[in-house]
Design goal:
The structure is a homodimer. By secondary structure, chain A is an alpha/beta fold. Helices cover about 30% and strands about 25% of the residues of chain A. Chains A and B meet through strand 5, strand 8, helix 5 and helix 12 of A and strand 5, strand 8, helix 5 and helix 12 of B.
Chain lengths: ~450, ~450
């Protein structure tokens, strides 16, 4: 343990998590005489804002990930370790991995959030959320497999639940997933099936709030609602989900209780802090908030532990209006850079850092082709301008040039041909999906389409 | 069942398998007054010749696959079904799926091959072969995870097996995998690790034959051997594998028995016919050959069953020299087109088709940067000309333009930056790999590299 700038035994900064917060903290320390170790249970940095495009087949996993050790390969003071951090030991200044321990002088916890089902953990099996690459693979599998089963199901009644898609939660992720589902059904799969019309699929967006995109200004909620309506999406606001299982879900809304038979239910209605947050709270006496976040001081450290920073989604940071800052990539990257500066100021004896101040560049959500909403300071706008801005900004934020080029090509093709390049379903045997309901083929596939249309 | 060209109840051709054989047969029937159903247990056509590049992180799965129903979407007479065919019932002219049955008038079986371990099925758990997208994911996981464990292993003795890579089988797939492994260790990961030098990895290519690439002319074997030698690969020919487990394998060669401790062993030493081939043989009285292939007549049908064609790798087709044709994409595509023509000739009453004649365009194998071998009729050559030819041909053979463009960009980046864009490891919890051996981190990562170099 040391707190000097001694080059022989440099100060050791351990960063847990290689997301936006952790990665930007590590990079901001590149030229400093410290030793940096980034620990993550994945070997890659994930560009989470585009994860919904992997889940819906526009992009492949390799296009929104970059190996952490490759990004940091030229940074001589940085080491990357693949490992799962399961506990923190602040008294001995070490973290506990599933298979080892690691000492630190300063710790930066950037462990992020996971899907949260508000006490209904069993729902996760039926309604995956979208936080990881694994999640995105599972969701893609569910979506495209549902259409495959529908093609083999001769009975329209039995087919309907396979062609009913429900997204729970109408924040940006929920809205983006819903818009993508509508485009898949209307455009991507238009000519692909013989026994039904994909454009007859039913797509539902459910939220307990009174309007969609509740964190956006009212006028943008209205714009988004109109855009989704044009895509044929049914919106149920003021509606709670009371149960979810493999065959559908039960809603409780203004019109009373309703059962919806749906084979594909996606969860975008809540996240909570990584389990490591709870361990850290227990060891430091910090009080987790309702979302499992750790309240940090103005310098992003845990009260009473100036050597432990918490940044990114896992930190509860009061904003200017008193509300906590939202879980967005810019909050995490700015927090990461701030933590690096604060540590170096302290090591150099330059006194305490100025409090962290978040510079809000605005938020956006994309709904579909030519449709997005942007909430940027005093400017609220939607339509094709917001959509083009969204495309450009996200392309520029991708971490390497190769991904930028490949993503650009995928978007261009997807735009002009309505296709989706990444629709790989794994072998039936390895799928995490029920194959019950996949019907007999005796109904002479290939003749069904016209019958179905007439009926 | 019908054998007319009646448009009301058209002749129904069922194709099992959407690989090169099945897909090209279906496409060749596009304008004919028949009904075509393609059944596959995957939803995509796989461009198998580039599968080793997915296994080694250059390409992503979406770049060498294309959804079958998307390829055939404009072909009005074709239906694509996702399903696993488990049996054939020639007497009733139907195939049996895991969850249904399907009647046919003519059947084209193009079910392909799977990895074969010559009676040692248990070896598959330790030494994956490379036949499917799932295989390629598993192999990629094994390769890149081994380096991750090595980074966390402070003991050089314990680290060595994680940095030893063995490929069993020196046909084109084995040689291509070996060349890629060498490039990963020497170039791709050059600066990525702190506690060891990836270029110190040991890469072994083992084959029971007396020379590598045994199906190629001697001079090309020699060229390939030289190229692999320059990449630092150790070649053991005339060497049999007598056992494989999770920690290594035992070799029996000219110098006697040898145990090699290796955490990554890849199998490229044998394939055999899909289990459906055995079912078909049993039902039709055909005699499977040693590799589980079905011997077909000169018109590619099963003797005694003119309504059942077998094409692609699963068919044993005598070549001009009496030897069976090799399991190559061109044999399958030509077989697929031939079967389509033969069926239509018969339906139109134009008499029996001329016997199938394979037009051999030659074979190639790529070894590494600027190194490949080509065996094209009387021309045997290697080096940069063969390598450029290989790149160009494979790019042109990709089924859609978007993939072609993306693969071209990936290759260009990989060539100029030595990087590999697709190195995603899934979460530790979901890995099919042992995590034992992943050591404690107490050995102060970040200091190890120089020690290792000195030691």
């Amino acid at each position: 343990m040391n707190h000097s700038l001694d080059r022989k035994a440099p100060h050791h900064i351990v960063i847990v998590g290689g997301g936006f917060g952790g990665l930007y903290a590590a990079r901001a320390l590149a030229k400093e005489p410290v030793r940096v170790t980034v620990v993550d249970r994945r070997n890659f940095h994930l560009f989470q804002p585009l994860l919904y495009q992997v889940a819906t087949g526009i992009l492949g996993p390799g296009e929104i990930t970059a190996p952490l050790r490759h990004i940091l390969r030229k940074q001589a003071n940085a080491t990357v370790l693949l490992g799962e951090v399961i506990d923190v030991d602040p008294d001995n200044r070490r973290i506990v991995l599933a298979d080892g321990v690691l000492d630190y002088d300063t710790l930066i916890v950037a462990a992020g959030m996971r899907n949260h089902y508000h006490g209904h953990d069993a729902w996760e099996q039926s309604a995956p959320g979208l936080k990881s690459i694994e999640d995105s693979g599972w969701i893609r599998q569910k979506i495209f497999f549902a259409f495959e089963v529908a093609e083999r199901e001769p009975d329209p009644e039995k087919r309907k639940p396979w062609l009913t898609f429900v997204v729970v939660g109408s924040g940006p992720t929920g809205v983006e997933l819903t818009g993508m589902l509508a485009e898949i059904a209307k455009d991507t799969l238009k000519d692909d099936f013989r026994s039904f019309r994909p454009e007859d699929s039913e797509i539902l967006l459910v939220d307990a709030a009174v309007r969609i995109l509740p964190s956006f200004p009212q006028e943008l909620s209205d714009k988004a609602k109109r855009s989704l309506g044009e895509l044929g999406v049914h919106i149920r606001t003021g509606t709670k989900v009371t149960s979810i299982d493999d065959t559908g879900l039960t809603l409780q809304g203004p019109q009373g209780e309703e059962r919806v038979e749906a084979r594909t239910v996606l969860w975008a209605a809540g996240v909570s802090g990584s389990p490591l947050g709870a361990r850290l709270a227990e060891k430091t006496g910090a009080a987790l908030d309702r979302m499992g976040r750790i309240p940090v001081g103005p310098d992003l450290t845990v009260p009473g532990h100036p050597e432990i920073f918490v940044i990114g989604d896992l930190a509860r940071i009061p904003g200017k209006d008193g509300n906590p800052l939202p879980g967005l990539a810019p909050v995490a990257t700015q927090g990461g850079r701030y933590a690096a500066r604060a540590i170096m100021k302290r090591l150099k004896g330059e006194g305490p850092p100025a409090p962290f101040a978040y510079f809000d560049k605005g938020t956006m959500a994309v709904i579909g082709r030519h449709a997005a909403v942007a909430d940027i300071g005093p400017f609220h706008f939607g339509g094709i301008v917001a959509w083009l801005m969204w495309l450009f900004i996200h392309l520029m934020l991708l971490v390497n040039f190769e991904s930028r080029l490949v993503v650009f090509i995928r978007w261009a093709f997807s735009y002009f041909t309505y296709s989706r390049g990444s629709r790989v379903l794994l072998a039936l045997g390895t799928m995490r999906l029920p194959v019950t309901g996949a019907a007999s083929c005796e109904a002479q596939p290939g003749n069904g389409r016209e019958e179905n249309r007439a009926g």
